[in-house]
Each structure stands twice: as C-alpha cells, then as structure tokens.
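I hope you will forgive my troubling you with a question about protein structure. Could you please explain, in whatever detail you think fit, how the structure tokens follow from the sequence? Thank you for your consideration; the sequence and its tokens are set out here.
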Amino acid sequence: MSVSTLPDGLTTPSLLQTLALVAQPIGFLEQCAQRYGDTFTTRVLGWQSPPVVFFGDPGAIAQIFTAPAGQFELGKVTHVFRPLTGDRSLIMLDGERHQRQRQLLMPPLHGDRMRTYGQLICDLTRQVIADWTLAKPFSIRESTSEISLQIILRVVFGMTPGPRYYQLKHLLNALLEAVTSPLYSSQFFFPMLQRDLGRWSPWGAFLKQQYQIDKLIYAEIRQRRAQFDPDRADVLTLLLSAQDEAGQSMSDEELRDQLMTLLLLGHETTASALSWAFYWVHEKPSVLAKLQQELESLGNAPDPDRLAQLPYLTAVCKESLRIYPIALISQPRKVKEPVQIGDYTFDPGAILIPCIYLAHRRSQTYPAPEQFQPDRFLQQKFSPYEFLPFGGGSRSCIGAAFSLYEMKLVLATVLSCYTLTATTQGTVKPERRGITFVPSSNFRLTAITRRTNTSAVNSSV
C-alpha cells in the first residue's frame, strides 16, 4: 500500500484558495472533486493555512468518524462560533467536558421526549401560515424561518408569549438576520476585527446586542429556577433538572451557552432545509401528488406521530437533505497525533473535513445524484457514512432527530392546509445564507386554495 503525506490538491497561494472557497463554496468543492477525486488537499484558512483535506469517500469518512477520540481536537476548530455561543457550548468542548454536556442535552431531543412537542409544532405552523394571502406570491423561506424561530422559543426555551418573549424574539431575529450577511459575519472569522469601538462600530454593536439577549435569557433561567415546574416538557425545564454522573447540574452560564447553540445551529438550518423541500415537491408534480395522497390517507387532523412515521414523507425530507444538506461539511477535525486515513498519513496540525456535500453527490452511491428521487430512500438504506446531513461520529448534530421530526411535521402541516404552486421566474440556484444555502430569491410560492381551516389553532399555542 502506497503512503503519501498528503493527497493531491491545489497549489495556488493559500489566500487565493481561501477567497475562492468563501466566494463560491459549492463551485470550489465541485471543481476540486472533478480535478482530484473524492479526497483532496487545500489550504483555505488564510495566509499561513495548514493543510485542509476534504473527504467525500464513505470509507474515509467512516475512518474519521470512528477514530479514537484522542487523535483529533475538535473544539478549537469551531472558534468562529465562540462569540455567539460562548466558551461552554457543546461545539467548543473536547473530551470529558464534551461528553458530559452531550449526555445532559441528548434526552430532551430524542425519543418519547421529542414526540411530546409534535402537536405544538403543528399548531405553531398553522398559526404562522394562517394569514397567507391567496393568489399572492411569497417567500416560503421567510415563513419557515418564522416557524423555526417560534418552535425554538416555545419548545427549546419553553417561553410563552409575553413581554420577555417578544423582546427576545425581536432581538434574536435581528441577530440571526445580521449573521447571514457576509460583511457582518466576517468579523467572527478575523479576530483583528473584534474591537469594541463603541456601539457605532460593528463589534461594539454586536456586543451590545448580545448583552441585551443575554440579559433576557438569564432572567428567564433565574425565573424558571425559582418557579421550577417539573411537569413542563420544554428542553430548558429538562436541562434544569438534568444531572451528570457526579450529581452535578448545569450552571446558568452552561445553560445559556447550550440554549444559544441550539438556537444558532437549529434555526436557520432547519428553515433552509424546509425551503428546499418545498422547492423540490413543487418542482416535481409527481412527487407532490404522491405525497399528498399519502398525507390524505391519514384523514383530517392526524396525530403528529403518525405523520412523522409516513415513509414517503420521510423519504422526501431525506432526499431534500441529501441534495442540499444543512451544512456542506461535517465538523472539521484537527489532527492531534499522527493518523492514517485510507492510503494517507496526516501529521499533527492538519485539518480533516468529512464533506457532506461531496458524499451526497457521489454517483457510485447515488445514481443520477443531481436528480430529486425520494424513492431511493424507500429502496435502499444508506450507511451513516453515505448519508450524513447532520454530520457523524461523536460530533454529530445533537438536534438531528428533532430537526428531521420538525421538518416532516411542518411540511406535512403546510401541504395539508394549502394547495400551493410555484411561481418561479428563471433558474433557481443555491444562494448562501449564513452557514446554509437556500433556494435563490426568484423561487416563490403562491397559495391557490385553503385545504383546511388554518385559523383553527389548538389552544396550546
């Protein structure tokens, strides 16, 4: 077996590679894959970038995901999120600290606990879409973004509408919208820009905004501690009562950082994935017809759990996540001690990146990968190294199950309430929005008829 220090890759100056990746991430990855294959080396982390190696081959991805924990450092690679999520965020931690937080966070976002949120997700969706105007084109992304934010505030934060709820919703909306701007978000990548020169400076404005948000979140945590109600089912309540193996519970600071992590990594991502699902089902009339038939088989007001178990609905959501995954890459791994992946060995300091986008576009795994074919998920079960929309290994997205559950319920609820048609002009292309990609702004939907009474929202909302 031949062993090479690094796979073949780009030899252009690292700054040019960095700018190319930032400007056109999808095009950059596709061009490199066409030239070098499944595995290639880049230097895309600025002037003195270490080698950054992308992997699209399932075998290599499996080796990375299952490698012993001590071979990689992960928290240090996510430093750009630190100002937003804080030092105690799950994505910033390594080793035992990461494992502790993951064990505390896992139960509320999986299994029976997760299913208790189903009716509320459906009700909130109906509430947001109740005032859609018939025969008027609109942006589905704006609606899915609003639905996703309300779900996080109600299901994760456990807040009910009131002064603090509306203040926090307004502030978070402004922050999340700002973060999607390349100019605004660039300050998180370059520490030299992180200088507080007063509220009129970009960093000063961010710090003020963050202070206002933190003030409301800490007030909510303190109130919920003082008036603890064990019968509540929201994520914050469950985290307040959770204890690790040593009997220790989370501090206020840990709770704040985990709530912000769930918000920042679970809001725009799910909203974007839903936008693509709506695009594809209205791009493919046969898919929409088959999906509508499946939804109608459950009758009026079906139980959310029965909805979430529908096979074709699940296949549609998975195929949407395959073609345009929530993130292009899984969490980067920084080599801590020499490691061999496939035919290559990597020295400490190298960055290894399982590339979700490339893995999902392999013709060997997915014939005709550019085509939207939900049936492929009915005909075959893909390994977690072939289909990995939420990453994998010990660093897979903590909210993966919840995100897919939410996605299915929102899509099903909207399609059960309205007959929609696409009113697109020109070709729809992926357009960057923060860390995700959404259908370009020329994709619009129009509500033709109401299928049910969308204003009949459950009293739990």
Notes: The CA atoms of residues 41 and 53 lie 4 Å apart. The longest strand covers residues 445-450. The mean pLDDT is 88. Residues 14-158+232-450 form a domain with the Cytochrome p450 fold (CATH 1.10.630.10).
